[in-house]
From TrEMBL:
Listed Gly residues bias regions: 134-153
The keyword Metal-binding appears for this protein: yes
Pfam annotation, one family: DUF34_NIF3
Residues where a divalent metal cation binds: 65-66, 104, 251, 255
The name this protein goes by in its record: GTP cyclohydrolase 1 type 2 homolog
Family to which the UniProt record says this protein belongs: Belongs to the GTP cyclohydrolase I type 2/NIF3 family.
Species the sequence originates in: Actinocrinis puniceicyclus
Coiled-coil annotated residue ranges, if any: none
Residues that span the membrane, as ranges: none
Annotated region (Disordered), positions in chain: 131-153
GO terms for MF: metal ion binding
Keywords: Metal-binding
């Protein structure tokens, strides 16, 4: 069987930890690199329900997009919910690995998966990675000059469609959540060039880059009142309809499509490692994507 070190090496090659933001906490959280890996579970959030799923399935490794320990801690006593999660994982022999902002900027990465879910033909990142950034030159599908890596993606629809139909496309493409899909813009405006950014994407520089590129719509999560209001006003100030329509989706839902991509990548790489490509046969690793909805919002009450 491959070891945890083997699996970490594959994931680090695709989602180099050196690509993560300085404030982020990615990589192996707990686990013995020499331990054998037979089952790997992918999920967005390392919440208690996901930990329980990993234990019930008998996973040897849990890979999550969001970090369990994003902020520095001085201990992991089981007196806190995060400490309890660490104790449960270690006690049951389950390793935990996080691929967060390093997976956001990888190619293919989180936003590539979101773009494909919407049937977009990707043409490039919203905020390209620096050509000489950390990790360039390392092996793996996400390495290289940085020309393909970066935050967010621009993509083109197969055919133009009105915003109201595009909003339905988004709603049908992503797993349902209680908050649903919110839209800011003229329902009849034509949408062809689309920008997407999995996770929180109302950074002022991102919004400006999307507007300057002439995107018709921008799909992301966690859009706040003031950035949205100002983006719409700036677009109208430049010219009627100059700014993009804004489509706000669940943070969890926007990142969930990436899990299948990461799982497929790991399965293919392990197939080569374990000899399933014609070499000497070794053990087979089961890979699963969690179907649990870990979006924290659980109820939507429509107002008449």
């Amino acid at each position: 069987m491959p070891t945890l070190a083997d699996v970490v090496g594959i994931l680090d090659a695709a989602y180099d930890p050196r690509w993560a933001e300085p404030w982020d906490a990615v990589g192996l959280v707990c686990g013995d690199p020499a331990a054998e890996v037979r089952k790997v579970l992918f999920a967005v959030d390392p919440v208690d329900a996901v930990v329980e799923e990993a234990l019930a399935w008998g996973a040897d490794l849990l890979v999550t997009h969001h970090p369990l320990l994003l902020r520095p801690v001085h201990g992991v006593a089981a007196t806190t919910f995060k400490g309890r999660a660490v104790h449960r994982l270690i006690r049951n022999g389950v390793a935990l690995l996080t691929a967060h902002t390093n997976a956001d900027v990888a190619t293919p990465g989180v936003s590539d998966a979101l773009a494909r879910a919407l049937d977009l033909s990707v043409i490039g990142p919203i905020r390209p990675a620096a050509a000489s950034g950390p990790g360039d030159g390392a092996t793996g599908s996400g390495s290289g000059s940085g020309s393909g890596r970066g935050l967010g993606r621009f993509g083109v629809l197969p055919e133009p469609e009105p915003l109201r139909l595009f909003a339905q496309r988004v709603a049908l493409a992503l797993p349902p959540t209680s908050a649903g899909v919110r839209v800011a813009g003229d329902p009849e405006r034509t949408v062809r060039l689309v920008a997407v950014c999995g996770g929180a994407g109302d950074d002022r520089e991102l919004l400006a880059a999307v507007r300057d590129a002439g995107a018709d719509a921008y799909v992301t999560a966690d859009l706040r009142h003031h950035p949205v209001s100002e983006a719409l006003e700036e677009g109208e100030f430049a010219a009627p309809g100059a700014g993009p329509a804004l489509v706000d989706v669940s943070h969890w839902a926007s990142e969930w499509p990436w899990l299948s991509d990461a799982a497929a990548m790991l399965t293919a790489a392990l197939g080569q490692l374990c000899g399933h490509d014609g070499g000497p046969q070794r053990g087979t690793v089961e890979v699963r994507v969690s179907q649990l909805v870990t979006d924290p919002w659980t109820l939507h009450a429509p107002q008449k």
